[in-house]
Structures are given as structure tokens and as C-alpha cells.
User: Fold this.
Amino acid sequence: MTLLDAPAQGLVLGPYTLEKPLGQGGFASVWAARKGDGTGVAVKILKPRYAGDEAFELRFRQESQFAANLSHPRVIRIGEIGREGMLVYFAMELYPASLATALAQGPLPEPQLLAITRDVAEALAFAHAQGVVHRDIKPDNILLDEVGRAVVSDFGIARAVSGYVSATGVNMTIGTPHYLSPEQAQGRPLDGRSDLYSLGITLYKAATGDLPFKSKDWYELARMHVEEAPAPPRQNHPDLSKKLERIILRLLAKHPDDRPASAEELLHELDAMQDPGRDTRSFKVPDAYRGSVTTSIPAHKPGEKEKKWWKPW
Ligand SMILES: Nc1ncnc2c1ncn2[C@@H]1O[C@H](COP(=O)(O)OP(=O)(O)OP(=O)(O)O)[C@@H](O)[C@H]1O
Ligand SMILES: [Mg+2]
Assistant:
């Protein structure tokens, strides 16, 4: 092993000294670190086996640069990409918690949940307007500050990974498949409404403490996203408001056309929810949830093995 081929406490990467590991995902680890002037930052470090792969590193650099240019109060700020030895990294603002760590204590109270949803919807509305689909909205990528305001992290990263996978054929799964949209599960083209579905799964988890679809098997989970109707959140949590349930179920519609048309529209629905005087007719529960699932995606027949449209990404 040469020096600087694995992150460790006390390691110096450019201006940053690593202090504490915060966690790791599919292809990177994140450390709390400190700059020479004492400022705390988070440093995301590509796992050495990917830093050694030029094609991946290039994509990671391009997408990180792209994300660094997304400047919005609800999108995490990230800095220059650097390299020390085999370690490729970038710094970003350090947050004390994520939605994932907050949910480890149990479901969130509805007002707090709605405030976070609004913050995430603002970040998505901004990014989608720039043509950026996040592709990996989930509690780990929603970071919370001391007063519970949320920012979204990892814009562009999932695109770097999926672009690399389709260009090279390398089999590489990022993160968890629990938050994948049906169109991601099928390798179909994506637009911003895919992020709205992943936000719906995130809200379901945040409101009920549970995921709508659970399986250890990747393909089974993908099939559930495509075909199975989620149990209505109020089934086990009657204390949740009907309006919140309607929003969650609309976000979880199988077909993108049955979801809110945009993050902007979701923001309007959240406004209407907080103001009972406003017209709320758009809170229509998708027909897919009245009785059996009806979408443009062909239904799975029991015993049927593989379908033509089935194409894992
Ligand atoms: N700027 C940050 N401040 C505080 N914690 C962070 C920061 N960025 C990431 N984290 C936390 O560090 C952990 C690892 O993050 P990372 O993005 O590498 O993986 P992930 O989001 O869990 O999965 P994926 O592989 O899909 O990216 C996560 O729990 C995340 O919430
Ligand atoms: Mg992340």
C-alpha cells in the first residue's frame, strides 16, 4: 500500500484534515474534516478502486463540477475537486444530521415533514429547471441543519454513475433500490418526475417509519415499484392527515403522468394544504389506487418469468 490510498483520521487532503468518518455509499466515503482556519467541512472521497478508473473519475469530476455550479440555498454547496495520491475528493458544507439520521429516532411530526418536503421541492424545482434530474433522492441525501432546514446533496453523482454503467457495461449499483422510480427500475428515460416518485418514497418512510416496498432481492423490489400499489400511509397511521396521504400517494403514482407535473406544482399543492381556503381539487388520488393498479405498464401475471419491457438499468 502506498501512502494516501485510503482515508484515515488525521490524513491531510489538500487544505483538509480528516477527523471522523460520517458514512459511506456505493462508491465514496464521507468524512468530517477541518480546514487550516478551523472551519468544519465534509469531504467526499471516491473509493480508491474507482479513482483508479480513468473513465469513472472523469465522469465523477464532470458531474461534480456540474453540481458545484448549481447555486441555490436548498442545494448543498460543494467546492473544488482535488486529488492526493490515489484519493480523489471534493469538499462540501458539513451538516450535523441527515433525514436518515433523524428518522433513526422514528417518524417525523407532520409539520416538520412538510417543511422538509418544501425545502426538497424547492431544490428540485431549481435543478429540474436547469435540466438536472437528481436520480438518487433518499433520506441520506437530504441533509438537515441545526434548525431543521433541509438541503439536497449529491446532484449529478447518480448521473455520473449511471452514465458510466451504460458506457462501460460495468455492473455497479449505487445506494439502495428502495427509492428507485418505476421508470428507473425499467431503464426508461427519466425526467424530473422520477425524483418526485423517490421523494414520495422518502416521505412515506418519514411519515410512517416504514418503506412501502420491502425485499432483499433487487429484482423483486424493482418489480414492486413497477406493479404493486403501496399500502395507504394512514392504514397503520390514522393520525396522519388525509391531505398528506393524498400527496404521498400522488407522488407514488406508477406512471409519471399521474404524479404532480413538476416540483413547482408540488410546491403549489403544499401551499394549498397549509391554507384550507385554497382550491385543493388537484389533490386527486390517482385512479391506480382505487382498486387494482391500472397503469400503462403491463401488469405482471403470476408465474410469468420475464417480460419484454423489463430491462433493469
Ligand atoms: N455534507 C455532509 N454533511 C454531513 N453528512 C453527510 C454529508 N454528505 C454526506 N453525508 C452523510 O455521509 C454518508 C455517506 O454519504 P454518501 O453520499 O457517500 O452515501 P449515500 O448517500 O448513503 O449513498 P450513495 O452511494 O447513494 O451516494 C450518508 O449517511 C450521508 O448522509
Ligand atoms: Mg449521498
